[in-house]
Structures are given as structure tokens and as C-alpha cells.
Amino acid sequence: MLRAFSLTAASLVAVACAPSTSNAEVSTGPKPFEVTAVATFNEPWAMAFVPGTPYALITEKSGKLKLWQSDGPVRDVAGVPTVDYGGQGGFGDVIVAPDFSKSGLVYLSWAEAGANDTRGAVVGRAKLEYQGSQPKLVGLQKIWEQNPKVTGRGHYGHRLAFSPDGKYLFIASGERQKFDPAQDMSANLGKVLRLFPDGSVPKDNPFYDAANPVKSQIWSLGHRNPLGLTFDDKGQLWNQEMGPRHGDELNLVKSGANYGYPKVSNGDHYDGRDIPDHKPDDGFEAPKAYWVPAISPGGLMFYNGELFPTWKGSLFIGGLGGEALVRVKVNGENVEKADHWPMDARIREVEQGPDGAVWLLEDGSEGRLLKLTPPKP
């Protein structure tokens, strides 16, 4: 369940896990950017700029894929899959293939219904045809699914990222509010998965087992509800995920590592039951930063643009319950909390535009697409 906390500047002291992470309060004073609202969408979830074009793709959770352009109409994309809409489920992520200029492929995630009132996230790919009056997906092919499908409509995760060399597709899979599957090696729930772009499994994955195709997909385990996944300029993979009651995490995702959920967490169960905190030498990989109180993190983006030079080398996190934009500086394998700007709206997605501007999607039925640019002199 998504959380909505009333957070004040005094209460938003960020508690750091790693020694190199400093505490940081809500940033005060004028924001170092101007905000321009450019469009409105119905429950927007994810955004991807289409290279070499004036377009961006935006998913709406209820099942629509939109093709947006700054100087033209927003158009529906035909050929989209049927999604299981409800709770946290529906249309999810969208990213473009690294070889889009040649293949025209885009990758999508969504919630799919199964038998006996079950459902799970799936990932598919299709060719995007955007010329003419009716943009469409052609040849949609499902290449991955959560296994097993379970009851409920929460914690799908289903964020996507390509490795910088374009060879591998990484998928963040939530534990579907079932707790134990995050530690179950026969399930791909509560895991980060590593696949080839066609959905096949690399044999050098850390748990590869020819007799167990689900286990073979696993890159890391012990995740809860990962809603952000991105690489930095050093090729390191980062994810952020919602903790249970507080304890939201930013993790450096390593091959074969176990991030501990539900055995350890810096938050607790919603019913008040304690979960042991991360401790040194407990056998689990601790987050590089965590938040108590929670910020309910949404999208995750690594910034390497020129428009905001002082932000280069930073991760940006959208705050849902926290209604904020959070900047975290990356220093090797460690991070430092840098800025926490109140945005007065739930921030679902964060993306870098082709010109280095920062783009945000607000959550909700009238979620705005916002463009952040340096303030005019």
C-alpha cells in the first residue's frame, strides 16, 4: 500500500546507514530550478524519451500508452497490451532499446491477470511505429513474467533498465506484499533479474541452474518493492525501494547479494511488529542510504547532463508520500544526501531530457508533466 505521511522540515532528518552518508534536512530557500507544467495525464507511471525524435512515451496506469511531443498533440499508441488495472497494478515502465535507431524496439511492463484471482507483472517488447497519424506497437512479444502469480494488487515493482553496454536487461521485481518470496530462490518475486534483451538467461548469472530457469534469472534478492532502477556513469546498478513502515532504501545492486527483506529492514511492519535493523556482519547487504521517516520513493534517475553542471554524478529520487524531489550525490560505492526539495505533489517518475533538463511526472488522476530548468538570470 502506498503511504502518505505528513512530513515537516524538522521531521525529515535523513538517517544514513553507510558511514559516508551524511544527514540532510529538507532544503530551504529558493529552489535552484524553474518548474514548467507542460501536460496533464491520467495516473502517469513512467516516461521515456525516444532518441532522434521530438517524442516521449508515457504510460498511464489504467492501460494507455501516450506519445507526447512539446509542439503537438498527445496521441494514444495503438497495439498496447491488456493490463490488470487496480490497486498498484496496471501499466508500468517503458524504456527504449539501446539499439532503437536500428531496431525501433521499446520495452514495457504491466500487471497481467492469471488464474484463480491471481496476477503478476510481465515484461514485453514491440516495435514502435510513430510516423503518421496513428502511432502503434507492432509485434508485441511477452519475454518475462513474475513467477508465481499471486493474489493481491500490490508491490509489482516492474522497473526496467539496460546495462550501459546494452547487452543485458535488468528487471526489478517486487515481492507482491507476500514477504517470504523475497528470500525464496524458486520464485522471482522480491528480486532483481538479469536477462538478455530477448528474455533468455545469461549462463554467467550468479545462481544459474539449467534445471531451474526461474532461479537462473536472479541477480540479487531480498528486495521489497523496488520502484526505481538505473545505472550510473561507472556502470554501477542502483535501485531504490519502499521499506515497510519507514526504512526506504537506496541500494547499490551487486551480483549475488542478498538485501535482507523481510529478515532485516530499517523499518518495521505496519502492524507494529519489529523487523531487525541491518547490522554489520549480519550476512545481508545494507542500503547505502535509508530514510526514516519514509519518503515513499518513486522513480530513480542518474544525472549526467550539462544543463545543471553541479548536479552531475547525482541520483534523483521522486517522493510519493514525501511529495518531494531528492538528490543524492554518488561517490564511488557510497552516497551523500544532498538536497530534498518539497514539490507539493506525489512525484512518480524522474527522467533526464535530451538537453539535460529534468522531467517529473506527478502521480494521480491529473498528474502533470513538469520540466525543470535553471532559473532565468
What does the model show?
- The chain has a four-stranded antiparallel beta sheet, with no helix packed on it.
- The chain has a single domain (34-373), classed as Neuraminidase (6 Propeller), CATH 2.120.10.30.
- The protein starts with 33 loop residues before the first strand and ends with a strand.
- It has two helices and 24 strands.
- A hairpin with a 3-residue loop joins strand 3 and strand 4.
- The protein has 377 residues and is an all-beta fold.
- The chain is globular and about 50 Å long.
Number of helices: 2
One letter per element, helices H and strands E, the order comes to EEEEEEHEEEEEEHEEEEEEEEEEEE
- What low-confidence regions span 5 or more consecutive residues with pLDDT below 50? 1-23
- Broad CATH class: Mainly Beta
Query: What's the architecture, going by CATH?
Result: 6 Propeller
For the residues shown, what is the average pLDDT?
Answer: 93
Largest sheet: 4 strands, antiparallel
* Gyration radius over CA: 19 Å
Number of strands: 24
The CATH topology is given as: Neuraminidase
Q: Give the CA-based shape.
A: globular
Helix content: under 10%
Structural class: mainly beta
Residues in β-strands, percent = 35-45%
Distance between the termini: 43 Å
Write down the domain tally: 1
Instruction: Output the strand order for the largest sheet.
Output: 1-24-23-22
User: CATH superfamily, called what?
Assistant: TolB, C-terminal domain
